[in-house]
Design goal:
The protein is mainly α. The chain is built from 27 helices and no strands. The protein is elongated, with a radius of gyration of 31 Å. InterPro entries: TPR-like_helical_dom_sf, TPR_rpt. It comes from Dendrothele bispora (strain CBS 962.96). This is TPR-like protein.
Length: 620
């Protein structure tokens, strides 16, 4: 999903100009100056120059040239006043204030231009320089200054931009500090309070994604709800605030898996779209985000209508976005993800081909050095791997590993997404191992997935996912080498993954299924009945937690059937092979023709029928 949106930089520049003028106090027209209007004509040159200076500031567009001209005229005016006069003393002080304010405005404007450049190009040096300039501006801005809150807001946004590029925790901590100060300095009812609350919510969301602490996503929702509540109906920013609130509901859903959150996300995102007229520049962004919410709801409920709606809305977003737009690549990437997910459900080659096509376009549109290049490479690698698993063409898994490795290499150590990219590289290496059987691939997969686990703090939202995938890799090595410690470790980390995943989470069933597979593998090694009993128990839970129509229902049914078949082989109880046939048949029925796994599931069903025949000696 696209990032939540901060206050527009052009609006902020206009605000700075307005604050510049508002900080030219009425004392310039104090009693002494008023008296000059009634004094003799000898003073007229001073008044004329002063009036010209003020007109330079008050008329037309306020820019560097206008300010410089006003200061030059002010200096000339001062030259006409006698030394030692009270008016000259107060006017010198006023000129000093104007020059200081002009310096602040100039430095702040340069910083905003650097941030604009960063947003367009992803050049991290631009945001680094912007942070330095904005920190200088804050140091020079006294407490109580009317521009203090706005400048703190800009500094917070710059820290967020640098955090997204470099992933350093200190930057997002500083962003929250600066943005909280901006909010605290701004009274309710101020025109910009809602925008600054929104930006603070973005910062809490970024820290949540780094540390995975629930308190941060709760804080993000709280302040973004305040932003919505402070924005009156009919206000130009109402749709923006609703869209951004939907984004944090979506993220909490991804963490906790509570259906109410995804329903709220879709509700407020749809409101944002309904409030935005066709042709508005931001409409495409809202459509893209709503599409991402439909994707997540599909993954939770398995209702095909949701993934269809996701693809439809994301395609609309792309159609509304020019090729040179900064967000075009991100929208293509998200559409590719939706195609990839529908491929996983229906197994149609056209979907994975489209996924790879649009994700490759996203990569091609993104210049080297851009903050999002690594993310798009990572997602392209995932799609290529999916096609490999469907067609089995070696060049696909080779390319998947190549682009996933590029994504890892482009992601600095300590970055919030480093672990995720290591994890995905490990998945690709494991897929190649399962194709070629080369031990070095599974060794490398375990190594990078162990790094992913170790670099992720306990309590992080993704810790369970990385543990689950590490367990799967250890299972694969056990299947090749047969060392008991691998399957013991696999069961240990898969159990950790299950324990860390809350009930109701969208991925709970998948992690129970993986644990069941590991227990079944140990049973086949040691023959201890408790392992196959436990395998059946957790795989039954996986099936029960998965709604009919869900993309993975057939897989969980197939694995449950296989576990029951193994127990039948061990104990010879008829009911086990009867149930194995029942679940294997359901798995086959739920798998569409042409799906990559159809043949394997038919094979498992056939084996179950054969064993029942050999047990009973009866046809039919």
């Amino acid at each position: 999903m696209g990032d939540n949106m901060p206050i527009d930089k052009e609006e902020q520049a206009e605000l700075e100009q307005a604050l510049f003028l508002s900080n030219l106090p009425s004392e310039m027209f104090d009693e002494q100056l008023a008296e000059l209007h009634h004094a003799n004509s000898a003073q007229d040159p001073f008044l004329n120059l002063l009036n010209s200076a003020m007109q330079s500031l008050e008329c037309g567009e306020l820019n560097h040239s206008a300010v410089s001209n006003a200061i030059r005229l002010f200096h000339k005016a001062l030259g006409l006043l006698p030394d030692g006069s009270d008016l000259k003393t107060s006017s010198v002080q006023r000129l000093t204030d104007i020059e200081s304010e002009a310096k602040f405005a100039e430095v702040n404007s340069s910083a905003l231009q650097l941030m604009e450049h960063f947003d367009q190009s992803g050049d991290w040096t631009a945001v680094d320089n912007a942070v330095q300039l904005m920190e200088e501006v804050i140091k020079l801005t006294p407490d109580g200054h009317t521009a203090k809150a706005g400048r703190l807001n800009n500094l917070g946004n710059a820290f967020q931009g640098r955090f997204k590029r470099l992933g350093k925790l200190g930057d997002i901590e500083n962003a929250i500090l600066a943005l909280q100060k901006a909010v605290d300095l701004t009274p309710d009812g101020h025109a910009d309070k809602a925008s600054w609350l929104n930006n603070l919510g973005n910062a809490f969301l970024h820290r949540f994604e780094y540390l995975g602490k629930l308190g941060d996503i709760e804080s993000a929702i709280y302040v973004k709800q305040q932003a919505v509540d402070l924005t009156p109906d009919g206000h130009a920013d109402k749709a923006l605030q609703l869209n951004n609130l939907g984004g944090v509901f979506l993220r909490r859903f991804e963490h906790l898996g509570k259906l109410g959150d995804i329903e709220n996300a879709i509700l407020v995102m749809q409101k944002a779209i309904d409030l935005t007229p066709d042709g508005h520049a931001i409409k495409a962004g809202y459509l893209n985000n709503l599409g991402s919410a439909f994707v997540r709801q599909f993954e939770h409920l398995g209702d095909l209508e949701d993934i269809e709606n996701a693809i439809l809305t994301m395609q609309k977003a792309i159609d509304l976005t020019h090729d040179d737009h900064a967000h075009k690549a991100g929208q293509l990437n998200n559409l590719g993800t939706a195609f990839d997910i529908r491929f996983g459900r229906l197994g149609k080659l056209e979907d994975i081909e489209n996924a790879i096509l649009v994700k490759q376009q996203a990569v091609d549109l993104t210049p080297d050095g851009h903050a999002d290049k690594a993310a798009f490479l990572n997602n392209l690698g995932n799609a290529i791997q999916s096609r490999f698993e469907h067609l089995g063409e070696l060049r696909d898994i080779e390319n998947a590993i190549l682009v996933n490795q590029q994504a890892v290499s482009l992601t600095p150590d300590g970055h919030a997404n480093k672990a995720a990219r290591l994890n995905n590289l490990g998945n690709a290496l494991r897929s190649r191992f399962e194709c070629l059987g080369e031990l070095r691939d599974i060794e490398s997969a375990i190594l990078v997935q162990q790094k992913a686990v170790e670099s992720t703090s306990d309590g992080h939202a993704d810790k369970a996912a990385w543990l689950n995938n590490l367990g799967d890799a250890l299972q694969s090595r056990f299947g090749c080498v047969g060392q008991l410690r691998d399957i013991e470790n696999a069961i240990f980390v898969n159990q950790q993954a299950v324990n860390l995943t809350p009930d109701g989470h969208a991925n709970k069933a998948a992690r129970l299924n993986s644990l069941g597979n590991a227990l079944q593998s140990r049973f086949e090694c040691l023959g201890e009945l408790r392992d196959i009993e436990n395998a059946i128990l957790v795989q039954q839970q996986a099936v029960e937690l998965t709604s009919d129509g869900h993309a993975n229902k057939a897989a969980w049914l197939n694995n449950l059937g296989n576990a029951l078949h193994r127990r039948f082989d061990h104990g010879g109880k008829l009911r086990d092979i009867e149930n194995a046939i029942l679940f294997n048949q359901q798995a086959v029925d739920l798998t569409p023709d042409g799906h990559a796994d159809k043949a394997g599931r038919l094979n498992n069903l056939g084996s179950a029928f054969l064993d029942r025949f050999e047990h009973l000696g009866e046809l039919g």
